[in-house]
Amino acid sequence: MTSKIANIRKQLLSDNWYVLNKYTFDLQRKNGGFVEQVREVYDRGNGATILLYNRAKGTVVLTNQFRMPTYVNGNASGMLLEACAGLLDEDPPEQCARREAVEETGFQVSEVKKIFEAYMSPGGVTEIVHFFIAEYQENERQAAGGGVEDEDIEVVELPFSEAVAMIADGRIKDGKTIMLLQYLQIHRLME
């Protein structure tokens, strides 16, 4: 069923960090009638994420960095262990994933594979994230990583089995990272 909306009204609430708009609209219901709805929509642009893995070593490379929204929502340290990611900034998704891998982890990987794309929080955020994986080799490390400008990112290489266990015990809570690790697990790429 395709949703039908009418009488869309848009009000800019914020254009500070990203763009927050308030939309008021009439949504057509299954019975043909309409109901007015009001939603705030946060537009931060689309992004890409990439999980680096090394099958021979049985490891993955993640990043650890401060994330204010997690701090506000109960993460006492604000630090989040996650796959590297970033906004497209008008680059094609694969180019963004490669750029973020170098900036955040220092690895300039040769083979990159797109596995899917997904809305991560469609109830309030417009962002589509493009998901990639890449097998890394030690000789592909071009720099120390750690991010750019105001970023302070720790590069973390750990056994794949430990990363999967960290999902179960709550040390990894980032949705995109969980999805990428489970992709490797489901497709038996680390066996």
Summarize the helices and strands and which ones pair or pack:
Blueprint: E1 5-14, E2 19-28, E3 34-43, E4 47-54, E5 59-66, H1 68-72, E6 79-82, E7 84-87, H2 93-105, E8 113-119, E9 128-135, E10 154-159, H3 160-168, H4 175-186
Parallel strand pairs: 4-9
Antiparallel strand pairs: 1-2, 2-3, 4-5, 4-7, 5-6, 5-10, 8-9
Helix pairs in contact: 3-4
Structure described in brief:
With 191 residues, the protein is an alpha+beta fold. 20% of the residues lie in helices and 39% in strands.
What does this structure look like?
- It comes from Serratia aquatilis.
- This is GDP-mannose pyrophosphatase.
- Its cofactor is Mg(2+).
- By secondary structure, the chain is α+β, with helices and mostly antiparallel strands.
- It contains 4 helices and 10 strands; from the N terminus they run E-E-E-E-E-H-E-E-H-E-E-E-H-H.
- It has helices at 68-72, 93-105, 160-168, 175-186, and strands spanning 5-14, 19-28, 34-43, 47-54, 59-66, 79-82, 84-87, 113-119, 128-135, 154-159.
- Strand 1 (5-14) and strand 2 form a beta hairpin.
- The mean pLDDT is 94.
